Amino acid sequence: LEEVREVASDRESCRGLPRQRWQQDNKKTLNMMLEEAGELVKDTDLFGRAVMNLMFRKGHAN
């Protein structure tokens, strides 16, 4: 995990919108705190259902 953070922080941001941190993106997309997402990820079936439910409500479901 630490290696992923180092690689991500070494990249230059592209033009346009400022780069967001994955924690901010997680909070905005899933509408939950990082700790809540961490608990939810422990049960992969529950996590999958929660994400699909959220995407359906936001209109992003296929």
From TrEMBL:
Biased composition annotated in UniProt, kind: Basic and acidic residues: 1-14
Residues covered by region (Disordered): 1-20
Name of the protein in question: Uncharacterized protein
Organism for this UniProt entry: Arion vulgaris
